[in-house]
Specification:
Structural class: alpha/beta
CATH class of the largest domain: Alpha Beta
Number of helices: 11
Number of domains: 2
CATH architecture of the largest domain: 3-Layer(aba) Sandwich
Distance between the termini: 32 Å
Strand content: 15-25%
């Protein structure tokens, strides 16, 4: 069920699935600015068999209300929205499931409000944009080489081996990624899994994309997303699970080593899988998420 909730003066697109008495889980999408649409399409009904699923388009993203030109907006707003939404829904504690950049948000949220969080699942997260950008550039270099573009391949490797700040690395990756065209998707996964986007018209999707571009540009301007949250991992007091795609470049090996500092952290690796286990391995994903959230212990 899709609804619009007025959260701290802004309309947020919220989708609810499952029974209210089931363990609640909040899904935080990646990006910044990816929307919960794809996750809902592939997983919401599956998870709703045992969980009360709350999925949102974050402030300003896609189907949520657009951020105004003079409107204050930053990283903290995304966390504060989670607090307000939980209170409006009347949920005492919920688990948080963060994909990619959503994992970055989930870590901050769980550290800041541990009394509201039962468990955290990090699905292919980034905790450090610099680490992720270097890993993505390395993957892009291999694709450029296959395409016969030696100059861009070398450029990617030079950037990956260099010491640019996270924001500059991220911007360089975005530019070079655009040069890959449709091949860019192969950075994240070599599997083709279709999602039906016909729920909205092309004009509507164009409008949603404009909303998202504002969201992303404002976060980039603020710059806080480029601060590493790796030091927070050792302070995580709630149980957590890292779901890792075997071939995912976003959660690179440095992330995995850093995550081992989580006091109550577990790791589950999905073989033959890239950056989106929720759509690449949907049945396994459903089972792992339900088992972990519903278990009284840490099953992994």
């Amino acid at each position: 069920m899709a609804e619009s909730y007025l959260i701290r003066g802004k309309k947020l697109h919220v989708e609810l699935f499952g029974k209210r008495h089931s363990p609640a889980v909040l899904f935080l999408h990646g990006g910044p600015g990816e929307s919960c649409y794809e996750f809902v399409y592939h997983q919401a009904e599956k998870l709703a068999s045992e969980l009360f699923v709350v999925a949102i388009d974050q402030r300003g993203v896609c189907r949520s209300e657009r951020i105004g030109d003079d409107e204050p907006f930053g990283l903290k707003d995304l966390i504060d929205d989670c607090v307000e939404l939980r209170e409006q829904l009347g949920i005492a504690r919920w688990s948080v499931l963060g994909h990619s950049f959503g994992g970055y948000l989930a870590l901050i949220y769980a550290i800041t409000y541990p009394e509201s969080v039962a468990k955290v699942i990090f699905e292919c997260p980034t905790f450090d944009f610099g680490w992720t950008a270097k890993s993505l550039l390395t993957k892009a270099a291999a694709l450029f080489e296959k395409m016969g573009d030696e100059a861009r391949s070398v450029r990617c490797l030079q950037l990956a081996a260099g010491s640019l700040p996270a924001k500059e690395l991220f911007d360089q990756y975005l530019q070079l990624g655009d040069d890959l065209g449709e091949q860019k998707e192969l950075i994240y996964s070599e599997q083709e899994v279709s999602t039906d986007y016909s729920l909205y018209t092309e004009n509507e999707w164009d409008q949603f994309d404009e909303n998202t571009e504002i969201h992303l540009s404002r976060l980039r301007e603020e710059g806080k997303i480029f601060d590493s949250v790796v030091p927070l991992i050792s302070r995580l007091t709630v149980p957590s699970l890292l779901i890792l795609g075997e071939n995912d470049p976003v959660t690179c090996e440095r992330h995995v080593r850093a995550y081992r500092a989580a006091p109550r952290g577990k790791i589950k690796i999905f073989e033959d899988c890239g950056h989106t286990p929720h759509k690449e391995r949907p049945e396994l994903y459903k089972n792992v998420v339900i088992d972990y959230i519903c278990s009284d212990s840490d099953p992994y």
